[in-house]
């Protein structure tokens, strides 16, 4: 190699640096056989020979000429050799030049346009293969491998007839290898363009849809193809979208077909041109029959004029065509049709055609008919319902009219909206004169005592305000004549559909009679009380005044007895005895009567009284009976009562002595007294084991002079229990008996407990 000339551009440049920067592979061979590679050479050689053997870059046929060139360089000669490089289709140019200590080899490989194309296609996501005449795959890119679901290595060397290809046509039929576009291109030397092909993707176990173009390559002048280049795109997604579009279009179409019987189109002039398959199918007309305006023959003769004029108007104005006519079906029947046609314009507004539809109206007519029937039925039902309603109304009117009670209806402001005849009668107004009037102002303006009745106090208006039902037992309403009518009433709110109070119904009872009866009763009670007082007065006066003559009779009877006893005949002695007896009894009767009459409410002075103390006093009073007859008296009376102790002592003495007196013959009398506090009262029971009293006498024994036995069996005046009852009642208490013959008796007594301050 000649040294660079002084002043030349590479003067002083470090050869080492230059070599390593060079993108082409460069090798330095020394005479001793050692080889040094630049960076580009190392990268390329190592793909083919792990040991870094430079010669591995070349096909075997190129190795001898390279060796020759090296030898020549070592002896000072520069040579250029054309070589076959293993990883490139295009031949390389190797320049071998002598250096100071060996030979320098520089390899230049022109890039094959095919390789460039492969890369380009890859970048666009298109698969590309290059196949030899025997269909073996020589080259392929990454995209092809990706689309077909294989590695490049698996693809290289495979031919189109390989049994593992699985390909189909769009209709699903098999797509054999010998018919693939690449094979066709090789055979026919014609470009096969955009052939659709389904290829099975083994990795995803799905079918991929490809669009395949195969381009044959022929060496200049040769009659056979040298190679075939196949480019394919994965259109699976596009295919799916198109299928989706087609599906929805079909759906839309079937919808259209379902709703319209016939779709037709005419040229811009309005002339019907074949083919019009739906029209033919429906009418049975042949293309020659309906062509132009022939279709009118299928329209009912009576409807033709209307159809023509509507059609012509639409054609002239270029606006919507709509008409109705009967159209003859292929079987001869006329079907009512709604016909619509629209002008179709292009983007410049130029009329392209008329597109029209005929809709079978018979379904609509049927629906209309059904609707009519339904309507009639509905009307009939409404009619029945109205009759029911008026029956109910009549009935309630009847009820209102016939009701003995007065009934008013008020609106939310208290204005009378209805009144029944009873109401009118009760208050002396006509129904008409009450309706429209404010009820309160008309009939409810004053209280019974003549003071004004404020609206805010009126229970009816309170109900109008709060919706609560109210019952008023005593009030007055004013008669037209000006007198008050005593009334009781119930006022009930009425509600609108939203639930708000919109008025009230008042049912009023005239209680004049009731009030009168009450007043009469009160009068009767007053009368009775007065006559009772009179009686008591009389009894007192009588018994008091009777005492004096009785005392006289008694004294003289005694005198007579003392003086003539035993001196007259025996019968006179007996008469004297009877007289004395009668006087004694009379005295005791008068005393009892006097005692009874003296009992007067006004004299009572109440104080807390211990029942135990009362019982002790009562025992004192019956002491004689107890000691003589061996009778027993016991008590358990821990309570205190509110009353007058002298009267209560008398009461208890009477009960206890009766209990002791009315004992069963041959049995010892036993009387037990208990007390129990019951709320505001004390309940006292006096129980004996005596002869008992049959229930039918239970009430009678408390009346004066009522006795159940002969005096010679049981002594007494029949005043004791009458006095007991009077004392009990004067204390605000009650007395009653619980007894049956031979079962003993229990007298029950209630007295007020000591009031708590
Ligand atoms: P009397 O003065 O006759 O006892 P009462 O008014 O005390 O009058 O009694 C009226 C009648 O009630 C008695 O005659 C008697 O027939 C009946 N009676 C009163 N207490 C008893 C009793 N504990 N057991 C049976 N009968 C009784």
Q: What features would you describe in this structure?
A:
With about 750 residues, this protein is α+β, with helices and mostly antiparallel strands. It has 6 domains: about 15-110, Beta-Lactamase, CATH 3.30.450.20; about 115-245, PAS domain (Beta-Lactamase); about 255-400, PAS domain (Beta-Lactamase); about 405-510, Beta-Lactamase; about 515-600, Helix Hairpins (Orthogonal Bundle), CATH 1.10.287; about 600-750, Histidine kinase-like ATPase, C-terminal domain (Heat Shock Protein 90). About 40% of the residues lie in helices and about 25% in strands. It has 22 helices and 27 strands. The longest helix has about 55 residues, at about 510-565. Bound molecules: adenosine-5'-diphosphate. Adenosine-5'-diphosphate binds near residues 688, 693, 719 and 722.
Give the tally of structural domains. Answer: 6
How much strand?
25-35%
User: What name does the CATH topology of the largest domain carry?
Assistant: Heat Shock Protein 90
Mean pLDDT: 84
CATH homologous superfamily identity of the largest domain: Histidine kinase-like ATPase, C-terminal domain
Task: List ligands, each type once.
Answer: adenosine-5'-diphosphate
- CA radius of gyration: 69 Å
Main sheet properties: 6 strands, antiparallel
Can you count the beta strands?
27
Principal-axes shape call: elongated
Q: Report the CATH architecture of the largest domain.
A: 2-Layer Sandwich
Structural class: alpha+beta
* Number of helices, where a helix is a run of at least 4 consecutive DSSP H or I residues: 22
List segments where confidence is low: pLDDT < 50 over at least 5 consecutive residues: 1-8
């Amino acid at each position: 190699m000649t040294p660079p000339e002084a002043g030349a551009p590479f003067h002083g440049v470090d050869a080492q640096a230059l070599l390593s920067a060079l993108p082409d592979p460069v090798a330095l061979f020394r005479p001793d056989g050692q080889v040094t590679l630049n960076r580009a050479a190392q990268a390329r050689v190592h793909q083919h020979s792990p040991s870094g053997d430079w010669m591995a870059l070349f096909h075997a046929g190129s190795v001898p000429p390279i060796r020759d060139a090296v030898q020549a360089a070592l002896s000072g000669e520069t040579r250029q050799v054309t070589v076959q490089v293993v990883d490139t289709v295009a031949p390389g140019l190797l320049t071998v030049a002598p250096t100071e200590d060996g030979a320098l080899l520089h390899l230049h490989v022109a890039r094959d346009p095919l390789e460039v194309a492969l890369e380009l296609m890859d970048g666009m996501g298109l698969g590309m293969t290059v196949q030899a005449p025997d269909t073996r795959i020589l080259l392929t890119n990454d995209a092809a491998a990706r689309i077909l679901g294989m590695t490049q290595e698996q693809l290289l060397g495979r031919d189109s007839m390989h049994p593992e290809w699985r390909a189909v046509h769009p209709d699903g039929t098999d797509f054999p290898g010998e018919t693939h576009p690449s094979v066709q291109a090789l055979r026919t030397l014609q470009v096969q363009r955009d052939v659709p092909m389904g290829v099975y993707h083994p990795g995803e176990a799905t079918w991929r849809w490809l669009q395949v173009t195969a381009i044959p390559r022929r060496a200049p002048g040769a009659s056979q193809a040298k190679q075939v280049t196949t480019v394919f795109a994965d259109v699976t997604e596009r295919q799916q979208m198109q299928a989706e579009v087609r599906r929805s279009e079909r759906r839309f179409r079937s919808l259209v077909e379902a709703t319209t019987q016939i779709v037709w189109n005419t040229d811009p002039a309005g002339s019907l041109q074949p083919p019009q398959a739906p029209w033919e199918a429906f009418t049975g007309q042949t293309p020659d029959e309906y062509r132009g305006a022939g279709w009118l023959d299928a329209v009912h003769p009576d409807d033709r004029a209307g159809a023509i004029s509507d059609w012509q108007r639409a054609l002239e104005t270029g606006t919507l065509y709509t008409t109705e006519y009967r159209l003859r079906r292929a079987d001869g029947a006329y079907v009512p049709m709604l016909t619509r046609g629209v002008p179709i314009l292009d983007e410049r507004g130029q009329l392209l055609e008329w597109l029209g539809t005929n809709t079978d109206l018979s379904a609509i007519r049927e629906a209309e008919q059904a609707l009519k029937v339904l309507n009639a039925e509905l009307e009939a039902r409404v009619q029945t319902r109205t009759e029911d309603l008026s029956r109910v109304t009549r009935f309630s009117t009847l009820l209102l009219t016939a009701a003995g009670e007065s009934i008013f209806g008020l609106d939310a402001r208290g204005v009378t909206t209805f009144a029944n005849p009873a109401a009118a009668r009760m208050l002396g107004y006509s129904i008409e004169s009450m309706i429209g009037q404010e009820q309160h102002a008309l009939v409810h303006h004053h209280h019974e005592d003549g003071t004004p009745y404020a609206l805010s106090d009126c229970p009816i208006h309170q109900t109008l305000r709060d919706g609560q039902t109210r019952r008023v037992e005593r009030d007055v309403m004013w008669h037209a004549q000006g007198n008050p009518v005593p009334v009781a009433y119930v006022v009930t709110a009425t509600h609108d559909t939203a639930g708000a109070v919109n008025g009230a119904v008042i049912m009023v009872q005239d209680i004049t009679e009731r009030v009168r009866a009450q007043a009469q009763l009160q009068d009767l009670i007053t009368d009775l009380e007065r006559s009772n007082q009179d009686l008591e007065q009389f009894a007192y006066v009588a018994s008091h005044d009777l005492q004096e003559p009785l005392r006289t009779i008694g004294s003289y009877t005694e005198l007579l007895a003392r003086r003539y006893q035993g001196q007259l005949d025996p019968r006179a002695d007996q008469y004297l005895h009877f007289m004395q007896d009668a006087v004694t009894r009379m005295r005791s009767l008068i005393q009892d009567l006097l005692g009874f009459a003296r009992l007067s409410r006004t004299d009572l002075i109440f104080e807390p009284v211990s029942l135990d103390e009362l019982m002790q006093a009562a025992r004192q009073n019956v002491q004689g009976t107890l000691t003589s007859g061996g009778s027993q008296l016991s008590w358990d009376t821990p309570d205190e009562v509110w009353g007058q102790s002298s009267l209560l002592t008398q009461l208890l003495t009477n009960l206890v002595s009766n209990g002791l007196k009315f004992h069963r013959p041959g049995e010892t009398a036993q009387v037990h007294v208990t007390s129990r506090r019951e709320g505001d009262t004390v309940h006292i029971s006096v129980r004996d084991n005596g002869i008992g009293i049959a229930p039918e006498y239970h009430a009678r024994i408390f009346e004066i002079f009522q006795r159940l036995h002969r005096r010679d069996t049981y002594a007494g005046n029949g005043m004791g229990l009458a006095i007991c009852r009077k004392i009990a009642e004067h204390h605000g208490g009650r007395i009653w008996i619980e007894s049956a013959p031979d079962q003993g008796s229990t007298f029950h007594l209630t007295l007020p407990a000591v009031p708590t301050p």
